[in-house]
Structures are given as C-alpha cells and as structure tokens.
Write a structure and sequence with these properties.
Blueprint lengths: L4 H33 L6 E2 L6 H6 L4 E7 L2 E9 L2 E11 L2 E8 H9 L5 E10 L1 H10 L18 E4 L5 H30 L5 H4 L7 H14 L1 E5 L2 E4 L2 E5 L4 E5 L5 E8 L6 E8 L5 E6 L2 H11 L11 H5 L30 H11 L4 H8 L3
Parallel strand pairs: 1-2, 5-7
Antiparallel strand pairs: 2-6, 3-4, 4-5, 6-7, 8-9, 9-10, 10-11, 12-13, 13-14
Helix pairs in contact: 1-5
Length: 375
Amino acid sequence: MKNKRFTQMLIRNLILMAIPMAFILFAALITVSHMRKMDDAQVYDMDDANLAEEYYLTGKVNVLVRISGLQYSGFDYKVGDKIKGSYFYLYRGGKMNIFLLDNDMTERVKKAEEGSAFSVKFRIVKDELTTDHILSEYMETLGLNTDSKEDAVSVYVLDQLRFPKMWIVMLDVFYYILQGAIAILLLYLIVAFYRPQILKQARVLKRFGKVKSVVADLDYEMRNELLYQSDNIFVTESYLIVAYVSRIDVVYLDDVEYMSKHEETKRGGRKKTYRLTLSNVEKMYFEMFIDDEQTIDEVAYYIQGGDENEQDKSQAARERVYVDGRDDGHDKYDEDDEDSRGDVYDEDDDYADGRDEYDEDNLNMSEIDEDDYDE
C-alpha cells in the first residue's frame, strides 16, 4: 500500500463509510442480545402447574410444562364466530388448574390414550373471571362447597394461545442475521483492503478501461505526475480527481474539450460560490463547486496543463482555458501555448467546430455561459 495514493483514498473512504455501518450493526446486536435475555423472551421449565403463581410473580411468564390427564371443560375460546382454542382443567390435591390449548393441541389431547403426556409452551395469564366461571360449573361435580371455592382454583391460566412464539423466533432470527452481517462486513473490509478494485467507488472507473489497470495508473500519476493539489482536489497529467467520503470523482482530461467557470450565489444570497464545468461534444459532463475563486482558477489552469513551477504565470494566461460563450472566444488562443492540454484550442480551430457540434446536439454551452459567466 506504500505510495499508492489513490488506493489509499479508496481504503480511507471504505473505512469512513464502514465505521457508522459497523456502529449501527453492533448497537442493534447488543440491543437484540439484551432483549433475548429478558424474561419476556425466555422460556422456563415448570414441573408443577401449581407453581404458576410463583412464576408469574417473579416475571417468568413463559413456561414449558409437561401436561397429562387434562379434562375438557366444555368451554371454547372464540374470536367472533371462530373457535381459536379450548379450555381444559386439571384437578389434583384439591386444586383446579385451567389450561387454554390451541385447536391442534386440543385435538391431540382429546385423541390421546390415557397416560399420554405432552410438552407444551404456555404464557401464564391472570384471569379470575374465567377461572371462577369454569369452577362454578364443576362445584357439584368436584364435591366442593361455597366455603372452599376461593382456594379451589388457581386464578392463573396457562394460555398456549398467548405464548409469544413469533416474537421469540424473530429475536433469534434477527440475532443471527446481525451476527452474519457483521461477519460479512469484516470479511469485505479484509478483502477490499487487499483488492481495492472491488470497491463500488473503484468499479465506476471501468469506463476508462480495466479497473485494476486504471487504479494502478491513478496511483502512479498521483505519486509521480501530480501537478496540483488543494484539499480534496488533485490534478495529474491525465486526470482530475475530486475525493469525497461517499465517492471519488475522476475525470480523464483527454475527454475534456470545453471548460467554463460561473459565479453563483448560494442559497440565501449571502455567499458566492464558483462552478467549474467540464464537457465535450459527446455529452460528457462534470461539475464541481468551490467557494474560493483562486482555487478554481488554479484547478482550471493545471487541467489545461500548466507547470506548477511557473509561478509567474499571469491571471490572463489562466483565464484562457475558459470558454466564455462569446463569438470571439476562440480568438483568445495563444499560439505560444501549443502545448496546452486537450482540443479546446488548436491550430485547426477545433473549438469553433466543436462548439457548432455542441449546438447541434442541443447542448448549447455558449448560450449557458453567456448568461452565467461574467469575466
């Protein structure tokens, strides 16, 4: 990675973009892990239905109970006209416990042979009205009197329908998905560190050729042929590179035929900014905004192929690179500046021909510049 400046920018952007993503994933994983440990998402083994009150008061409301010998109470649980489940009871040791089973378990219990047992997950629900009503129907059958009614039934119903099966499953799924996402992110970071050409910001370079070769070319030019640098803007012999965190814009300078600068006012009308536009007759279009006019002039100057050691170049020489939209714009060409980059100005007056072609393509750059650019 030493001296690979463009590659370093790709890796830096990757890390900067991965940090908030990793933070979100880890925060979500910690949250889901905490929720999975809460009593509402835990299932506890309960050996005896008479312990329902103790479990309920300690917050252990989701329980796994092995049931056998249940009797159908004759009451069903309905939603509208549809039966969702049925109530069963178990009377042992002078105490009645009420169970609400779903339709599938109801059928299995009714058809089961005597002595059969089932492991069922319930949610403990306090429901005095239901338990008292069912008990009152069996007072005579169970040989109970009014005085013993209060202690004859548990007010805690073991409700299979209210067991949060979907919630617990979703927490488990989210937990493993987040773990997988973090693993994939870390793997992607490792692979991208050694093969930065797989990054999305690098893959857009395929319009210039094979991505790996273009990245190598950019590394070489930024190391050996860098003409100008100002913050996130770089101009090399062949490229303009503007680096942001979310993207890196790369312009191949040989594609540039027209360049214009426009002074604009930011929203609110209190501050000026400058827009540099690069284009050609094939509709290649690139814009960048810079608040400092000197910086945008320097960028334009070096895009045109200026020598960074020639500090005595005049402002007029820099301004020659701009297409100002006037009919005599091509007359600004200086015959002594034949080494300038691109086809903006050449001996065959390509600029004038190019401008006509631009107009024919309904991309009348001259009309845009005449309205917006004021030297």
